[in-house]
């Protein structure tokens, strides 16, 4: 088994990746609406970047696994999944913190007859944080699944008997 061979993954992996794409698109839409209502904010910009990066990463996995196996690299997929875990952990925690701040602002504004746009952004950001947490869990599951499959493949490669060209009687060097 060479390092270019495609790992055998459980059949549910494709459904997990599909769920990752769907949740990423939902979080992207929620953050775009929030950014449009507020007029821009750095946290929400990061909330736009991470779902787009997720779509690219899952797109690479699908393309390399099913459409173009010559572009498959198991180590690239592992690293990209690790990076995605960190990105989604950061995103959902930042969105949750931002939702808490907006909730406080909303409660103060309600006391004094504030804006309804803050309430809308608060709700959208809170939903984005929950979906971000779900996406984080999905990436943990796919990372663990992929890592276990990679470990099994590496163990199978090491257990396969290695041919030594200097001691093997039937090799081309010892025939002369």
From TrEMBL:
The lineage of its organism: Eukaryota, Fungi, Dikarya, Ascomycota, Pezizomycotina. Residues 157-176 are annotated as: Disordered. This is MARVEL domain-containing protein. The chain crosses the membrane at residues 21-38, 44-63, 75-101, 121-146. Residues 159-176 have a biased composition (Polar residues). The keyword Transferase does not apply. Keywords: Membrane, Transmembrane, Transmembrane helix. The keyword Plastid does not apply.
